[in-house]
């Protein structure tokens, strides 16, 4: 992995007044969607590179903004349903239109995004403003022609998948078959067909008959990128279950269970909390899985269930501060993780607007900061360091001066290039490694 | 000793979180509350396992058999399920009762540590530490008010029997005996165990409906008396809990649709109060140490069932009872 100073000046955009709650590139990387706490989705599009404006090569501009979810109130249960977008997943593009799924706690919606850059002109019966013409003035027939117009991006909800979940939806994942997708809440996973909204199949149900016996919940789930019958879900106990839908209709029984024995020397009151997996991602190759728990990211090989093949410490200096982090609720923060396109580098967020990258090949890691200072023109991202006592260098940050309100929970990596999107509260940073834009 | 203080602090924080989770937008988060309950369990285990003179040791922390489902009750329990809205009346009084367990826990834990039995939930009305007592009493006042208002039952002899069943738990002693007049608040029992010499209360004393017992109104009511004396069941003039209390409405609400069972604080706490669970069953059977930190099911949702017709559990943890209180 190249040094961070080769990264281009980042793009900084203030997406909205609301906190960004999810970030997702589409399959080509041309589009980048963000969801926020206010239920809005903002889509960015990468500008094609042009020789005329070399400095704006490949920058992302706002493409479309729409309100995906509104706050709702379930009168029967007296529960308010937040409009916050929990996850966005793009569908593979099958025609000129783009489609994505967005979900809040209870309802998943399929949105279709289409462009209109031409409009017909020269109607016989309507004038330019669309008013009906006086027929007596029509003396000849003309064929309406399509004339270019300013690009208009239209977004429309095509499907609404409602009432499938009793508990809060935490993840959605589109199957590689491009026909189905799954949605997971705390206790159940449902399989939907993209065209059918009035029913779904329950494929995992870990709700105990007696809720008193509940010991773990589902925290994340994802379909395998290539095998349409395989999916994985993670639990609050730190385990991963790989399930095969060919084995049974109800995949409560896992095909593989990935679990690492707890290190007894690290036992504390909060051991269970910090072992809860907050995110799971298959590698692009489909051979590995990446998990994030509170202090580490781990790489698992699908062929080995006993333990991860790699473990990276994200911010181990927090281990001694778990009690304070429990008090201020930070210990419940759910960080996401991401692979780069070639599966050689993994990335995850941390506090103080820091995010971390780990190169799996060189075993080198770097801490970078997403801040306004770093987004000035010509700015290069300087590696940061958190000092934990001992010799302190000039620009080091001490653990105690970390700002825990500035957390980077959501990050995304372009599927093919070294472009990353970092959500820092209500700001979106896009960093591009222009010098080294090819993956290796 | 440091561990105990730390554990105590963590318990207080955890209870606060559970309390706050009820008013959070979007409903109660199952995952977070589960994690908090696990922390509560760990802290409790540490707290109880730290040997201190006079500290009553918890019973086996093994996994007890889950309490039997109440007949006719779906797995989603009454007001208690995770996130189920409690019966309207109960809900009305909910906010007021919330602060108590915190105080109770806070006030009780140190007492246990001091070998003074936090004994009772009375802790709420007790004077373990001066300042807290006043606050606790004030809390009780608040509890009574809304509960009465919510109940709207004029004929309730106890007057303070709110519909809010969980509030009644606060009235119970660790042993499960409701506070009696003979045991004025502030009287610390020797140890929770010793304090509880109450004889098993016959089932008939317990109304079928969960009695919302207001500890202060209990007066002479309830099973047994103070630490010193345990009147035979039925021998004490009892203020019977309201018979016209409805069953926790939510119990039946699951018939049509599954309720989202997210953290009901009281149930959670009640489970946390492990051995307490046995008291929640209709059938006598004594308390079995319930799996701690787990969410409660329908049983815990039987607020009123509390303890009354069960033999006192010797291993009842005083402050866990207080936690159960609300």
TrEMBL record, chain A:
Gene3D superfamilies: YVTN repeat-like/Quinoprotein amine dehydrogenase (2.130.10.10). InterPro entries: PP2A_PR55, PP2A_PR55_CS, WD40/YVTN_repeat-like_dom_sf, WD40_repeat_dom_sf, WD40_rpt. It comes from the Eukaryota. GO terms for cellular component: protein phosphatase type 2A complex. Keywords: Repeat, WD repeat. One of its GO terms (molecular function) is protein phosphatase regulator activity. Belongs to the phosphatase 2A regulatory subunit B family. This is Serine/threonine-protein phosphatase 2A 55 kDa regulatory subunit B. It comes from Aotus nancymaae.
């Amino acid at each position: 992995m190249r040094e961070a100073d080769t990264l281009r000046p980042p793009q900084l955009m203030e997406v909205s007044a609301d906190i960004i709650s999810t970030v997702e590139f589409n399959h080509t990387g041309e589009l980048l969607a963000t969801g926020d706490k206010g239920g809005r989705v903002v889509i960015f599009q990468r500008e094609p590179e042009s020789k005329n404006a070399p400095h704006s090569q490949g920058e992302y501009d706002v493409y479309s903004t729409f309100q995906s979810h509104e706050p709702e109130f379930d009168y029967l249960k007296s529960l308010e349903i937040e409009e916050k977008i929990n996850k966005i997943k793009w569908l593979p593009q099958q025609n000129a239109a783009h489609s994505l799924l967005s979900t809040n706690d209870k309802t998943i919606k399929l949105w279709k995004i289409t462009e209109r850059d031409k409009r017909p002109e020269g109607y016989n019966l309507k004038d330019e403003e669309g008013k009906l013409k006086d027929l007596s003035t029509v003396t000849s027939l003309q064929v309406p022609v399509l004339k270019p117009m300013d690009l208009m991006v239209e977004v429309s909800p095509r499907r609404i998948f409602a009432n499938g979940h009793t508990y809060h939806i935490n993840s959605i994942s589109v199957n590689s078959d491009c026909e189905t997708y799954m949605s997971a809440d705390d206790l159940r996973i449902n399989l939907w067909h993209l065209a059918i909204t009035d029913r779904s199949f329950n494929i995992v149900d870990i709700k105990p008959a007696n809720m008193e016996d509940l010991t773990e919940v589902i925290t994340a789930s994802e379909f395998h990128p290539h095998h349409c019958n395989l999916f994985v879900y993670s639990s609050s106990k730190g385990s991963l279950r790989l399930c095969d839908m060919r084995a049974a209709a109800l995949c409560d029984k896992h095909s593989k269970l990935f679990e690492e024995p707890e290190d007894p020397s690290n036992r504390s009151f909060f051991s269970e909390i910090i072992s809860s997996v907050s995110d799971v991602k298959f590698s692009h190759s489909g051979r590995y899985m990446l998990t994030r728990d509170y202090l580490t990211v781990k790489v698992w090989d699908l062929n080995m269930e006993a333990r991860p093949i790699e473990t990276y410490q994200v911010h181990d200096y927090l281990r001694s501060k778990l009690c304070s982090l429990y008090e201020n609720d930070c210990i419940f923060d759910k960080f996401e993780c991401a692979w780069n396109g070639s599966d050689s580098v993994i990335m995850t967020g941390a506090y103080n607007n820091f995010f971390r990258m780990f190169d799996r090949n060189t075993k080198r890691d770097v801490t970078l900061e997403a801040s306004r200072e770093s987004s000035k023109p010509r700015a290069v991202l300087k590696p940061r360091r958190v000092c934990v006592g001992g010799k302190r260098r000039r620009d080091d940050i001490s653990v105690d001066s970390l700002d825990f309100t500035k957390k980077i929970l959501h990050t995304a990596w372009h599927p093919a290039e070294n472009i990353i999107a970092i959500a820092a509260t209500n700001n979106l940073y896009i960093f591009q490694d222009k010098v080294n834009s090819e993956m290796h | 000793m440091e561990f105990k203080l730390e554990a105590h602090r963590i318990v207080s924080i955890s209870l606060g979180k559970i309390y706050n989770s009820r008013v959070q937008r979007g409903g109660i988060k199952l995952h977070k509350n589960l994690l908090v309950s696990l922390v509560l369990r760990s802290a409790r285990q540490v707290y109880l396992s730290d040997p201190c003179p006079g500290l009553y040791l918890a019973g086996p922390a093994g996994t007890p058999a889950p309490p039997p489902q109440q007949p006719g009750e779906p797995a989603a329990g009454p007001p208690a399920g995770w996130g189920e809205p409690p019966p309207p009346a109960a809900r009305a009084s909910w906010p007021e009762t919330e602060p108590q367990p915190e105080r109770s826990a806070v006030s009780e834990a140190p007492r246990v540590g001091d070998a003074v039995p936090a004994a009772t939930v009375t802790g709420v009305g007790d004077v373990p530490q001066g300042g807290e007592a006043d606050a606790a009493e004030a809390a009780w006042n608040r509890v009574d008010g809304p509960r009465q208002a919510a109940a709207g039952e004029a004929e309730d002899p106890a007057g303070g029997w709110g519909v809010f069943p969980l509030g009644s738990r606060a009235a119970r002693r660790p042993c499960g005996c409701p506070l009696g007049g003979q045991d004025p608040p502030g009287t610390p029992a020797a140890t929770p165990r010793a304090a509880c010499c109450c004889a098993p209360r016959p089932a008939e004393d317990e109304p079928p409906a969960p009695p919302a017992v207001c500890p202060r109104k209990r007066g002479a009511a309830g099973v047994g008396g103070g630490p010193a004396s345990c009147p035979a069941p039925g021998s004490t003039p009892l203020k019977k809990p309201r018979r016209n209390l409805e069953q926790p409405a939510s119990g039946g609400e699951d018939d049509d649709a599954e309720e989202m069972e997210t953290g009901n604080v009281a149930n959670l706490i009640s489970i946390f109060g492990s051995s307490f669970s046995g008291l929640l069953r209709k059938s006598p059977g004594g308390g079995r140490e319930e799996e701690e930190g787990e969410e409660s099911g329908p049983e815990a949702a039987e607020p009123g069932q509390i303890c009354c017709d069960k033999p006192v559990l010797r291993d009842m943890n005083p402050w866990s009872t207080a936690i159960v209180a609300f």
